[in-house]
Design brief:
With 247 residues, this protein is an alpha/beta fold. 42% of the residues lie in helices and 15% in strands. It is globular and about 60 Å long. The mean pLDDT is 95.
């Protein structure tokens, strides 16, 4: 029987799937949360729940939190990985309120509500909350207003919860740059020039892999990162350090 459990949201995506697999390999019992079915090799149990509906607290408590606790059983919960996110692009004057509110629900409210619901278990087990942020919280581009705002708020939530929940619970953030997920790769299909330009924006002149994000997540959840809380680790390939000067 596994001795520790981790909750990972968004296990159908490239990053969430990689994190789930890596944690399973490390001996964690992984409870995935996803709005649709996901591969069984990235989590031990799946909670099917659409986090955009999390603001319905009664439904969220019954259909998500209740199911998590049923599936975990007697295994202590030591980690919550808030990975699930939605990215809806639009210029400021075209942003739809429904898209804005959906983004806030998935990218910010759901991490807060999941963290709040798991506080007693995490506090008792001196656990960890890992929020998956983004370089867009620090530097962004056109049409990313909604996404960048929610990720910047998630970074702020990380700092505030680390102060509020310490010392029993560590709260950390991992912020990747461009990562070669199936979704990203599909978006660049037939666009080799644009993909090469994206790679060149990074100091390492390549994008990251989901497995590299998972390796960083495993480290942050481990005792080797025991003094790491309230901070963001930018897994950005140097993109935030590189000046994009046209001259």
């Amino acid at each position: 029987m596994k001795k520790r459990a981790a909750i990972v949201t968004g296990t159908s995506g490239g990053i969430g799937s990689a994190i789930g697999k890596a944690l399973m390999q490390e001996g964690w019992l992984v409870i995935g949360i996803n709005r649709s079915d996901t591969d069984t090799d990235c989590c031990d149990h799946l909670v099917r729940y659409d986090l955009s509906r999390c603001e319905n607290e009664q439904e969220f408590s019954q259909d998500c939190i209740g199911e998590i606790r049923r599936l975990v059983g007697d295994v202590p919960i030591l980690a919550l990985v808030n990975n699930s996110a939605t990215q809806i692009l639009s210029a400021t004057d075209d942003i739809l309120l429904d898209d804005w509110q959906k983004s806030l629900a998935v990218n910010l409210t759901a991490p807060l509500l999941l963290s709040r619901a798991m506080v007693s278990e995490l506090r008792a087990n001196r656990g960890i909350i890992l929020n998956i942020g983004s370089v867009h919280a620090q530097a962004t581009k056109k049409e990313f207003v909604t996404y960048a705002t929610t990720k910047a708020a998630l970074h702020g939530l990380t700092r505030a919860m680390a102060v509020d929940l310490g010392p029993e619970i560590r709260v950390v953030c991992l912020a990747p740059a461009a990562i070669g997920t199936p979704m990203l790769n599909a978006g660049f299909e037939g666009k080799e020039k644009e993909f090469s330009e994206l790679e060149q924006c990074h100091a390492l002149e390549r994008i990251g892999s989901p497995e590299e994000v998972a390796d960083a997540a495993v480290f942050l959840l481990s005792s080797k990162a025991a003094f790491f809380t309230g901070s963001t680790l930018y897994l950005d390939g140097g993109v935030l350090s590189k000046l994009h000067d046209p001259a």
